[in-house]
Specification:
Blueprint lengths: L15 H14 L2 H15 L11 H11 L13
Helix pairs in contact: 1-2, 2-3
């Protein structure tokens, strides 16, 4: 029988660059489940907690991102002609 270890994304979020890249992909996906899963992993990686993991509040997101050394940036949506 093959033994496998459970994959924990939080263990791989070791730099602000990795965190920023993953978070950007999650937000660009517009997939709420993916976004909340990534936020939860970042929270665990930084030792923070989310009050409501399936529906985090903006204050939770700011705390997690600050602890991870990343910031939220808004960009205009490019319209395809």
């Amino acid at each position: 029988m093959i033994k496998t270890a459970k994959f924990d994304l939080a263990e791989h979020l070791t730099t602000p660059g990795r965190i920023a890249a993953l978070l950007t992909e999650a937000f660009e996906s517009n997939d709420l489940d993916m976004i909340t899963s990534v936020l939860d992993a970042i929270a665990r990686a930084t030792g923070k907690t989310i009050g409501h993991p399936q529906n985090p509040e903006l204050g939770d997101i700011r705390t997690i991102m600050g602890a991870a050394g990343v910031k939220l940036v808004a960009e205009p949506i490019e319209k395809v002609a």
